[in-house]
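Fig. S4 source data, part A: sequence.
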Amino acid sequence: MRGTRHRTRSLLAASAVVAALLVPGALYAAGHVGAVAAAPPPAPDPEPSGAECRTSVQGSRVIAYCHNPYPSADRVQLHTKCARWWDIDADSRPVDVGPGRTVRLDDRCWKEVGSVWVTHGNETRAAS
């Protein structure tokens, strides 16, 4: 019987030593040790949206291609400012660009084109 008690004590002592060696490693892996102040998780980024538009000017004509690679629709509008004071500036009608779609917008001036830009989303919606 005496041998059994000795073995039991030896096994308990060995178990205590193994546990003492494993607990700090487990706590470190779980992130409880070494963290001075737990940082909150980062805020989620907003879902990317909006069509990518490319414009080109050839003489007095303006062409814009807008491609929307995102899952939400975008509304685009082409704006053309003519170089001459007497030439009327123009805005195309707003066009919805669905997911995975490409639209073509075009406009022209009588003479030279001064500047061209495309607006997106709520910027183009007129009050009714």
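Fig. S4 source data, part B ends here. The two ends are 97 Å apart (CA to CA).
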